[in-house]
Design brief:
Elements: H1 3-22, E1 31-36, E2 41-47, E3 52-58, H2 69-86, E4 93-95, H3 104-114
Parallel strand pairs: 1-4
Antiparallel strand pairs: 1-2, 2-3
Amino acid sequence: MSKILARKLHNRAQRKGRIRSVVSGTATRPRLSVFISNMHITAQLIDDTSHKTLGYVSTVGQKSLTGTMTEKATWAGTEIAKQAKAAKIKAVVFDRGGKLYHGRVAALADAARKAGLEF
């Protein structure tokens, strides 16, 4: 592994640790955790006090879902907001998972806000 790649991974791990030390979800205000790989996007609503996942959306296995990754992130944001509404959750704590709040992460967050989630 090159030194540059190792440094990028190290910096991301540090950001993730700083975020997770502060962000914690409860039953009334769960944590909206986002994971974005090169091909797929996953979003979860997590209650950290009882260690349960309250909602889950992923682009894995969605054959009909086409378009750019930003469009997929928008889809994931609206779907996770629908699941939150079904579970009677209005507010969440946003966990961007060490990624910068930019591009795909911002698209997912904006779509979730537009669909009715507060964070």
